[in-house]
Design a protein that fits this description.
- This protein is an alpha/beta fold.
- Helix content is 39%, strand content 22%.
- Strands 4-3-5-12-6 form a 5-stranded mixed sheet.
- It is built from 10 helices and 12 strands.
- Helix 2 crosses helix 3 and helix 4 packs parallel to helix 6.
Length: 295
């Protein structure tokens, strides 16, 4: 025993088990910032209030959602599973609040996006836009970082969602997502062997993060599979060819988070940014920007 008190979680009776939106907002902030102090600044509460909120939420769901790693608060396996539900509940709550004021927009909006955002981040925002502006036409253009930056600069797209940095444009953080080591159900880790990585062929923040973390930790690795598309990454994962790192939004029934006991290095979170050019924003694009920008 290490002398620390053991937290006992008692489930609340089903008849009163209602999730609190305020607690969920704070939970998401802590998950993204990995700190009660930093989360408190984001949700405009004291650190003590944030701590109390998270204690109540853990008591309600009957399990630990965070674990202390050094000075940071990291999500447990249960916390990772709960994060996606929390985000969807909060987003649906906000959508329900906004739906009572429906306005019309007439100009189509072109949004350029990286592949990682298309089927994980954008669907929820598109749903909000469709509910709020029923006649809005949105065109999604998927491309790599270099093309996205060029397209926004030339006015070929109105808004851009990317995980890479673009210093030339106005920007805000849409979401900060934990990054996890993931593998398909067929993958079997072999201790002491070089880590087989599934990598993108081109420059990629995830690729750079993986290679840097493994190199710093002195862990041998090799490229087991390389592809130019995210679909190729998914196929290689499902085939059990190796492991990769992605945001938790990419988790699926046939893709799992690797056991922390494998001692793979911790990876920093990844931020999805929304970019735009103030001088080029149409009225429709401005409405979409204000609608999906986090408050």
């Amino acid at each position: 025993m290490d002398g620390h008190p053991v937290q006992v979680y008692r489930r609340v009776p089903m008849s009163v088990r209602n999730l609190d939106i305020g607690q969920l907002r704070t939970f998401i902030a802590v998950a993204e910032r990995e700190s009660f102090t930093d989360a408190a600044e984001r949700v405009f509460r004291t650190q003590a209030a944030v701590t109390q909120q998270m204690q109540r939420l853990e008591q309600l769901v009957g399990c630990a959602l965070f674990e202390r790693v050094g000075r940071r608060k990291r999500l447990t396996m249960e916390g990772l599973r709960f994060l996606d539900y929390a985000r969807r509940i909060v987003m649906l709550n906000d959508e329900a609040y906004r739906i009572i004021t429906t306005e019309e927009v007439h100009q189509p909006v072109k949004i350029g996006a990286c592949a990682d955002a298309v089927d994980t981040l954008l669907p929820a925002y598109l749903e909000i836009c469709a509910e709020h502006y029923s006649n809005l036409s949105i065109d999604i253009l998927v491309g790599r970082t270099r093309w996205l930056g060029s397209a926004l600069g030339k006015g070929e797209i109105d808004l851009m969602v990317d995980i890479a940095a673009h210093a030339d444009f106005e920007q805000l953080v849409l979401r900060t997502s934990p990054v996890a080591w993931i593998a398909g159900l067929r993958y079997r880790h072999q201790a002491g062997r070089s880590v087989p990585l599934i990598l993108m062929q081109n420059a990629c923040p995830f690729k750079n993060s993986m290679v840097q973390a493994l190199t710093d930790a002195g862990i041998a690795w090799h490229c087991a599979f390389q592809t130019s598309t995210l679909a190729g990454v998914r196929a290689a994962l499902r085939a059990g060819l190796g492991i990769t790192a992605r945001t938790v939004e990419m988790l699926a029934p046939d893709v799992r988070v690797l056991d922390p006991q494998l001692d793979l290095p911790h990876l920093p979170p990844m931020q999805f940014h929304l970019y735009w050019r103030n001088e080029a924003l149409s009225e429709s694009a401005t409405k979409v920007l204000h609608l999906i920008a986090p408050r």
